[in-house]
Specification:
By secondary structure, the chain is mainly alpha-helical. It contains 5 helices and no strands. Helix 1 runs antiparallel to helix 2.
């Protein structure tokens, strides 16, 4: 958790790191923080209370958030790979292709696709 916070802090504070790759890396770190925050608090409570019970709604909610942030990690890795492909294969067109609007759009689409996949899994279970 601390490492992810340090990555976000470093990327936001240093202007040399305001590139698409580091933008996606900081968003991935944020998704990792949320991913960890969905399971660890419940696990700590279960360990301290020696109880392993979870309600049906609690299970669906935890599973939903786990899928959202896990899928978002995977999609952000895919977008980072595309960014590296553009940087290597089209180095002169890289700033034009990977503009800030497209980077924000990719993060937004990865969040929307993660939400869609999570809701699909919830509908299958329900």
């Amino acid at each position: 958790m601390l490492g992810n916070l340090l990555i976000i802090l470093a990327v936001s504070s240093d202007s040399h790191l305001h590139t698409p790759m580091y933008f996606f890396l900081s968003n991935m770190s944020l998704a990792d923080i949320w991913f960890i925050s969905t399971t660890v608090p419940k696990m700590i409570v279960d360990i301290l209370t020696h109880s392993r019970a979870i309600s049906y709604v609690g299970c669906l909610t935890q599973m939903s958030f786990l899928i959202i942030f896990g899928c978002m990690d995977d999609l952000l890795l895919t977008v980072m790979a595309y960014d590296r492909y553009v940087a290597i294969c089209h180095p002169l067109h890289d700033p034009v292709i990977m503009n800030p609007h497209l980077c924000v759009f990719f993060v937004f689409v990865s969040l929307l696709l993660s939400l869609l996949e999570s809701q699909l899994h919830n509908l299958i279970i329900l």
